[in-house]
Amino acid sequence: xxxxxxVVIYNHRFDAxxxxxxxxxxxxxxxxYHLMPFYDGDRSNVVPVYGSSYHxxxxxxxxxxxxxxxxxxHYLFVADDLLLNPAINEDNCQAHLQLRAGTCxxxxxxxxxxITCGVxxxxxxxxxxxPYTLGLQPxxxxxxYGEALAKLRAHGFDLRPLRFxxxxxxxxxxxxxxxxxxxxxxxxxxxxxxxxxxxxxxxAYPLIGGYADIFAVSAEAMARFAQYCGLLAAQRLFxxxxxxxxxxxxxxxxxTDRLLQLRGKALWTAExxxxxxxxxxxxxxxxxxxxxxxxYLHPIKLSRWKMDL
Length: 309
Fold this sequence. Notes:
alpha/beta, Spore Coat Polysaccharide Biosynthesis Protein SpsA, Chain A, globular, 2 domains
């Protein structure tokens, strides 16, 4: 009996990756499902979903009836360009991710008011997001503000007002100021007004950010988590706000990377990617000699690697 179901999420339709991913995880997971945007093929474990890559959490809700299994204890969601450590399988996944009954997993969370190393451009979306979306009736679908804040605090987080400099990045030279005046004059006026009044900005609803390309959801929390993901996608909340927030609202306990022996590795810079040069684009070499200490590597664009498994 498989206690962990692997669910692969695709940002865009890319049918060629289905066979590649099946080959990578064959023998490691008995049940593999693919949430593929706009899929119209006939593979039974490829689930057609619909929406934007910025809101792919909506796919979790749309595909729930297709991938949900009565014997499953956890559902492990991974992006199609995220490569799990080859040592991870359905038998040891729960131990590696510290998943006990009712526990979910997310690599980590970030509270917006604690961000000090520059401005994350998506914070503006969290501040300006309105949960009362025109055309929807969200009342009763999301927990009320006070309950959501209590859930956030129960997980050890808080919600505090933000300074202008934590939301919007202002220019550092005259050319930049002129460009800002031409493109976003209202933001320039807001910056001046905020500075004079020492204004603080409050979120309309308790939100929290986090990495969303891998996460695990317990069977106990799955229905609630999927409902929140579907609603937040319909409200067009960006995925790296929506998935962490949905998890905090749905789960009683959440495991993060700081509790694990293995840690994920994001490959965003040229220096990061250079670590993979020694594999010469051979997927077999990478999986045979996976970097020590890493739970996963992301992104690994499979179309650029030789499928020499």
